[in-house]
């Protein structure tokens, strides 16, 4: 019997955390090997807020990734006081700017304190004029299951106030966000792999599972359904962004575990498994590449990932020097493997 | 300035897990010292299902607790096939029978597979005739935030089918359960200390906190408000039941942590702090003793716990031989201390 195969062309991960130093050297190649490009989030300590830091980080990523066919699209950490001149100067070096409400996730302590449009206006007007997209971690500091829903009016307010600004609702987790996507032309979104698969049940419904604890937290079954349905039909304003976020094993499996799910090395295999299960493989290339190419105006070198329907046992851990990270599905078997990369 | 003091008379903990062996020896005295009695849950491995096991466990509890003024009210683990003769024989040795849907919490694997009233009818009819109360862990196996709410129709169905059966909704966590309390004369409830204080935010809103992970999981702010309001007015059908559930530190602070919050040694101090804060100290004796005495027809020896408004630093851990357990508020300071016990 012939093996079932599937090809993904120029896959893009439009929301990725690569960290720095040895952790970057560990996780960078796990994305660059199988993806054509990734949008790299800037929440290092200190965050990326200068052209110098940006270019230096991009260089470190390229050195760690060692793949000529992989493009790291870097971002700045949003600050209210970025001037038009500064933004104009860095415009060609970045793909967008990432806005974090202060204290909302890992290394976001220096994020913006107020989401009032008037406070944000100067920087957002400059970005709008210069055509720099705004990527937002959209959560309030309310009750954990309501934080994204409560942020919807803020998305609306920014979308209405800056109709020429491309706004990306990052790692959306609710049906509210899916519904909002169709309401404003300038609103787009990324969704992770894990939010297409898990709900709060997987985090805290049986035993507590720190490896699936992330921000925004996985929500209700009806939220997952809305996200999955939009992904499976490759909603034209929705892009794949893994939000793959490595933390060392000891910081996940401890009291007070850090937030983040590490999915980079299994993302394409599991997406293929998921889209095949739902008879939607014909939509996967749009979801994982074409939508992002169109939304961000990207042109990419050809890179073809050939997957085959064959068991793949996910490694229990990935290690480099003193760093390590446990992937989603550690030790479990998934039904698709990567056969070749060209 | 005179110190602020408060007296609690004959406190009762109407839902308590004491485990067995060295863990029993560690946690038993932490309840018996300050309480007049406690309803002890039967979910050991194997569960308590025979008169012999029941009497033997009660004896081990008495030996571990070493306090003549403490009464352990023991319970049987519900089984569909208990005969009238058997129940009639154990009636005077137990305070009630605890029903667990299979697989719903720690050591509940051998619980009942179906909550269909007709399946439960023979045993429940016998209990009803004999006047044996039914204590229920009321959760379905649905989405974690909905499990208790989804169980409400099952409570209703049992309450309607057996109007003479006293039914206790154990460790309620939702406003739905509070509302149901007033709908059927034969429905009662216990509520824990921690569910009066925490929401899901405290478990998974910041970092993941395994020490506050429990079943049923802490719910939404409006649920906590409903529970707290009912406790503060000492709703006559609501009793204090800590559901204090010790697990060794390594089973809490690990990947896949066990469910349960350990509150026995701090329960009376924190309840006093909470009721004082809400100007409801005049209701605390009803909530923590009188309601249970009336609902279960208990007569108790006099035991007075005198508390004083003075800082108490909660121990980081309690230990005995190879067993240990981390209490809620470990290492933190609470504003009331126990001054004397008479």
Automatic annotation (TrEMBL), chains A, B:
Lineage: Bacteria, Pseudomonadati, Campylobacterota, Epsilonproteobacteria, Campylobacterales
Keyword Metal-binding part of the UniProt annotation: yes
Cofactor(s), by name: Zn(2+)
GO molecular function, one term: dihydroorotase activity
Entry's cofactor comment: Binds 2 Zn(2+) ions per subunit.
Pfam families, A to Z: Amidohydro_2
Positions that bind substrate: 17-19, 43, 137, 247, 259
Positions of Zn(2+) 1 binding: 15, 17, 98, 243
Key words of the record: Hydrolase, Metal-binding, Pyrimidine biosynthesis, Zinc
Protein name listed in UniProt: Dihydroorotase
């Amino acid at each position: 019997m012939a093996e079932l195969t599937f090809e993904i062309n120029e896959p893009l991960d439009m929301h990725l955390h690569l960290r720095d130093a040895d952790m970057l050297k560990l996780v960078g190649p796990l994305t660059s090997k199988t993806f054509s490009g990734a949008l790299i989030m800037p929440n290092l300590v200190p965050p990326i807020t200068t052209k110098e830091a940006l270019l230096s980080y991009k260089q470190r990523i390229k050195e760690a990734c060692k793949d000529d066919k992989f493009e790291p699209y870097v971002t700045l950490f949003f600050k209210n006081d970025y001037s038009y001149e500064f933004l104009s100067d860095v415009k060609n070096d970045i793909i967008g700017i990432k806005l974090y409400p202060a204290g909302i996730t890992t290394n976001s302590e220096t994020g913006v304190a107020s989401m009032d449009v008037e406070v944000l206006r100067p920087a957002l007007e400059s970005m709008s004029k210069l055509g720099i997209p705004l990527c937002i971690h959209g959560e309030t500091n309310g009750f954990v299951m309501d934080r994204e829903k409560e942020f919807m009016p803020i998305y609306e307010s920014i979308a209405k106030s800056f109709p020429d600004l491309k706004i990306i609702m990052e790692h959306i987790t609710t049906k509210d966000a899916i519904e909002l996507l169709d309401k404003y032309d300038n609103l787009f979104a990324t969704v992770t792999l894990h939010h297409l698969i898990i709900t709060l049940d997987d985090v805290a419904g049986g035993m507590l599972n720190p490896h699936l604890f992330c921000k925004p937290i996985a929500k209700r079954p009806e939220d997952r359904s809305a996200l999955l349905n939009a992904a499976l039909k490759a909603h034209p304003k929705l892009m794949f962004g893994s939000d793959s976020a490595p933390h060392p094993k000891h910081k996940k499996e401890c009291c007070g575990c850090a937030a983040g799910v590490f999915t980079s090395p299994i993302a394409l295999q599991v997406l293929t498994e998921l889209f095949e299960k739902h008879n939607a493989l014909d939509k996967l290339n749009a979801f994982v590449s074409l939508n992002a190419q169109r939304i961000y105006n990207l042109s990419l070198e050809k890179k073809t990932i050939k997957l085959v329907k064959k068991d793949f046992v996910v490694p229990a851990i990935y290690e480099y020097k003193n760093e390590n990270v446990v992937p989603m599905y550690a030790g479990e078997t998934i039904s698709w493997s990567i056969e070749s990369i060209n």
